[in-house]
Hints:
With 353 residues, the protein is an alpha+beta fold. Helices cover 27% and strands 9% of the residues.
Amino acid sequence: MPVYDRRCQGFTLVELLVVIAIIATLIGLLLPAVQSAREAARRTACTNNVKNVSLALLTYHDARRAFPKGIQRTLDSSVFNGYSLHTFILPFVEQKALFDQIKEEAVMNGQPWMKPNHYWPVNKLTRHATVPAFTCPSTLRRGEFPSDTGPITAHCNYPGNVGSNLAWVDLAPIQQNGAFQLEAATRIGSFTDGTSKTILIGEFVLGDGTTASGRFDRQSDVARGGTWPAGAAVSTSDGPITEAQLTTFGNDCQGKASSSRTGYLGYMWVQPVNMCTLFNTIAPPNWSFPSCMTATSNLVGDNRGVYPARSPHAGIVVHGFADGSIRTIADSVDVGAYQALGTRNGGEAVAAP
Length: 353
């Protein structure tokens, strides 16, 4: 009778190494595809958020016959003691309970609804209130925004467009040419350039919540102490703001970035200031120079500066327009064309992207 060897037949070392190499190669081929698919899904979710915020603003306009102010000051004179435009659209992004809670919290603490204080209880209430519609799933958490009640999570990735100007309250109303004026409510009727050719909202990435010097991230940090070129217009309503003037300002800011910076981009959706809930369209999206304020020590952008739209999506920024449409605009867009899309009443001839 034949005799069979009952010993287990295993892999040789060479065979095992070949199998491992094949598996590693397959993983190497599949991983980029998986990551790309995930990013595509996040980008789709982000685009949907831009759509929802845009529709919320338009619904608010239908109900109130005007858009919310970019900065809603309260009876107190301080800008910080006010509300952002995002606060007023909470009921239209499925956050009515939070909106009612904000008002109730103010009244319960002896403060009229429209007279809060920067460190009042509503600030503590909202600083941990994450609103999904205001948060891009692709955004990177570069750090924590510290507070006395724990890391702040009420971030804002979708700021409102204040136009092609240096974006602060010391500008005359006629110079505030964006979809939102800082302390006045705009109406669709004033969008004489056409709602399909006027940007309503854009994107921000999140900072790291620090002001430490010696390092700088162009996408998420804001340089301080930039000097706006002498003789340059502060708004395209006054005259053209050229790419050369922007480059001069950008180079100046680049030189100061590592020694004076703030990482509070996208800080809190309740704060009615540049960097937190407002951006301007002087510079193109994902500008190659740092975002930059003219003040030398401010934590957030409550002063003049260049605060461009920035996105975690490579090469483009998602924008919502005043007609409710959503479009991506490439970093390489012509500066003049982009500035024109940022104004509601500039009279520029520009094709919608």
